[in-house]
Amino acid sequence: MLGAFFLVVLVLASAVSLLIGSGAVGLLIALVLAGAAAAAAWWKSDVVALTLTRARPSTQESHPRLHNLVEGLCIAAGLPRPRVYVVEDAAPNALATGRNPTHASVAVTTGLLDTLSRIELEGLLAHELSHVKNHDIAPATLAVTVLLPVTALSGRLPRISVNRHREASADFSAVSLTRYPPGLISALETLRAGTSVVRSPSRATAHLWTVSPLARTPAGGRLAWSDRLFEAHPPPEDRIQALKEL
Questions:
Q1: Is 128 a catalytic residue?
Q2: Beta strand pairing call for 103-109 and 94-100
Q3: pLDDT, tens digit, for every residue of 141-179?
Q4: Is there a contact between 212 and 231 (Cβ–Cβ < 8 Å)?
Q5: Taken in order 38, 162, 210, 74, is the CA torsion positive or negative?
Q6: CATH topology of domain 40-244
Q7: pTM of the predicted model, to two decimals?
Q8: Is the CB of residue 116 less than 8 Å from the CB of residue 195?
Q9: Residue of 71, 88, 120, 128 with catalytic role
């Protein structure tokens, strides 16, 4: 993904260089720009993702239950403690982002904190921290920066670049961490019953959330046709049934 992004930027910069007739110097500048863009995409994708979701840093004093649960789960999972963020949004949802477990962040909406019980919240946080432990966050976070310029044109790339099976894998890892499947099951049922549609200026972050943040049509609960290409989540019903069969 990063290599493809480098090549796209290189081709575009080279085309501009040829159009203005800058010759070999222009091509060299294009190469440097492509390298700089790829490096920025790798190092700053998490900042882009958090900015797009309007996440704000959370403190122990402002959200003690949240921080206590994150700390306890990190100790149990053997993970460094991630940065914790809160998104001011009534829709219950959560996400994890970053390039590796040492540079990871977890964000939850205020709606999630207001809606879920402690047991449910623990199960959902375990799911997000499982993404960190399973190293899912690097490609998913990088995809935000790579996809951002093209989300207005096509949604095919999110489904190709982000493995939909990662959600099921994180669910199983979460219950192995908490040793209590009913907690995550109840959390997913609560999110399925309500609205998980998070207000965001870009669909490029849609694949990061625990459940799809994209609006569904009233009839049959299906996504609007314009959003189906951006869906990167298996149906919540399938995830819930798989957990019940454990």
A1: yes
A2: antiparallel
A3: 888 887 766 655 544 444 444 566 888 899 999 999 999
A4: yes
A5: negative
A6: Zincin-like (3.30.2010)
A7: 0.83
A8: no
A9: 128
